[in-house]
Amino acid sequence: METLTTDCMAVSIPEARRLAGVSRSTIYRLLRTGQLSGRKIRGRTVIETASIRTLLSNSPAWQPRSGGSVRSTSELAGTAA
Q1: Contact indicator for 57, 64 with CB cutoff of 8 Å
Q2: DSSP assignments along 13-75, one per residue
Q3: How many structural domains are present in the chain?
Q4: Separation of first and last alpha carbons in the chain
Q5: 77 within some domain
Q6: Tens-digit pLDDT profile for residues 34-65
Q7: Is the pLDDT of residue 1 over 50?
Q8: DSSP-assigned letter for residue 78
């Protein structure tokens, strides 16, 4: 995922989804639930970059699954290695 280094106050939906690494529908869901802040400017929706930063910094860090070992491709396919 790319670091948000833009000096823009707001970005387009495609740019917001690229920066956050999520789908277009997720961006709209996050807007609907108030997790992202957006504005309408001349009919175009833009996302405030501060809200993207807040969303990412408040999201939990990724953690590997507990207790699991890495399985080989043959184990996943159900055949003996």
Answers
A1: no
A2: HHHHHHHHT--HHHHHHHHHTTSS-EEEETTEEEEEHHHHHHHHHHSPPP-PPTTPPPPPHHH
A3: 1
A4: 34
A5: no
A6: 999 999 999 999 999 999 999 999 999 988 88
A7: no
A8: T
Strands of the 44-48 sheet, one edge to the other: 10-12, 44-48, 38-41
Q: Which pLDDT value is given to residue 40? A: 96
Instruction: Quote the tokens at residue 29.
Output: 């869901």
The length of the chain is 81
Q: Is the pLDDT confidence value at 26 over 90?
A: yes
One-letter amino acid for residue 13 of the chain: I
Q: How far from the centroid of its chain's Cα atoms is residue 13's Cα?
A: 12
Structural contact between residues 51 and 59, judged by C-beta atoms closer than 8 angstroms:
no
Q: Hey, what are 1's tokens?
A: 């995922």
Neighbours of 10 (CB within 10 A): 20
| Whether the Cβ atoms of residue 2 and residue 49 lie closer than 8 Å to each other | no
Host domain of residue 49: 13-58
